Structures
1.
Amino acid sequence: MIITCLGHAKFLLELENGMRLVTDPFDASTGYPVVPVRADAVLVSHQHHDHNALDTVQGYTRVLDTPGTHTLSTDVSVEAIEAFHDGEQGRLRGKTLLSVISAEGLRVAHLGDLGHLPDEKQAALLRDVDVLMVPVGGHYTIGPAQAKAVCDMLKPRVILPMHYRTAYNASWPIAPVEDFTKLLGGEVEELDMLRITSGDMKCQPRAAVLRAAVGA
């Protein structure tokens, strides 16, 4: 499996069987360049413009935007778990989905716009995933300290921070990724992509900031 960050909370997952999954595509109002991408299925955590821009994705036949188990093939499935976009039971921003992708003997989780610490039922479904894509910017989602607490709770093997301030969205009232990574100490690498198999998890970094492939 190859995981590439396309900016914000948008990731491309390329599987050995040729399947391509895209998470939370954004529109141009985010400030990031919108580069069309091909995918077989699109995971949409919630219906906000920076997460549901389906018109920027080409070739897809499935949109996963509801809670439950979604079977994409005999060996690929997605468990979408309902959660809240804020710390007030959704009163401010509604709900979001937390998705666990199971493929190639790996479990990869994308936490959408999570706005609170997971409850025990949610945590039980997310605990010990191989890769955790976690929002860290705050204001609209959990912030750096809460994101660190989520990682401590779920104990993923690899952490991929997302949804933070960059040069593209510099006016947004969210924190830069460094506010989160400094809480992890010296365990963070900067990579163009994450290439993983179920047999090489011991060789993977504890956490990685993926450079956004916005010109690809």
2.
Amino acid sequence: MIDWLIELDHGITLALNAAHTPFLDSIMLILSAKKVWIPLYAVLAVLMFIPKWYGRKSPAFRHGSRIPLWLTGLAGVLAVLLCFGLTEQVTNLVKDWVARPRPGNDPLFQGLLHLPEGAGGGYGFFSAHASNTFGMAVVTALIFRRGWYSAGIITWAALISFSRIYLAKHFTTDVICGALAGALVAIVVYLLYRWILTLISKKYS
């Protein structure tokens, strides 16, 4: 069973990487570039301080009449930063523990891969891009509670994660496990965020 899963993982990774074209290369390189998304992160930070942006099911909306706006926004920003810090640390710990080579550094795949971003260094399991982006996507989706936003930000995280397989920086399972880990961390951080807002709300009521 394990051998079959490994073969499937390798096969999907090779197939996606083999579908490369110059146009797709440029798109995937943009998606994978971390600095490209800094403006998005800045916009999300600003939106934390805009009451009308929160959906009616959001904890910030429910407690908004009792908590100062600056405090609500600060709680959201800190939740996102905490989520990012935790996903980054967990990813690094797991990478060092599992020590799985990236596809471009695996002897089995030498000469078989198209590597527009290079082979990459360090280990590949699991993907930091996937854990970080899914962590941010899920925690902000839970905080804002707007359906169209949730769909858009999850799609964004999925596209970035897909780019890591296409560029052969990660195997498919590296990305899937990274996404699941990021989502799990995001849920835990959101529960902490919601609990803290409840405590603050009681203080101001």
3.
Amino acid sequence: MTHREEQPPLPEIESVILECSSIGAARARGAEMWGITADDIEANVIAEDKKLFGILGSNLKVEIRPFAPISYIKSCYFVNEMLDRMDLDLVPELTDDGMINLVGEDVGVVIGRYGETLKALEYLTNLVCHEDMSTRRVRFDCGGYRDRRERALSRLADSVAREAVRKGGPVSLEPMSSWERRIIHVALRDSKDVETRSIGEEPSRRVIVCPRDGATSRPAPQRRRRHSY
């Protein structure tokens, strides 16, 4: 049976209810508590208690929450610092589905040869900012690279499947990220000729494509030569 590597759902976003004199004060306390900036916090007043008919001000009950999972926000901080150190004109933007999209003039530089630089930055960011590497990790995109890479991997999956059937044995692909491996698995999951599995440990984990029983191609019959006597 073809193995699929699904991307887990985004982590739950924590929320806290505070009693403060203002929304700004609530955001400031949240920023200190979570180690992010006040601009990254959403606030909503859920109750208001006025002191002495409002003469002495009021106490607010404010629900605050980060606009995204904290580890993803901190990932953007980390990436921004790394890009500054690399002197690259790029800005990380966090999308709704938990992807960091790098936007700017130096998209070609950060993608690198075969996406190696982008993948290295993604791996390093997850290693530093995500405590549990087995859970959902932040993904990276830059200049539409992921769409192009997905199409290329789908073509590669078909080619490797044919090779596995032709040679009658497993074919190993290069080490890939979990997202890239999933594309291979999904591309071949309905194949009647091959099945896939992942082996190894990160960051050297790779996909193996194996022919199913009875799927080995047979050599074409040779034509009999006519001899003149």
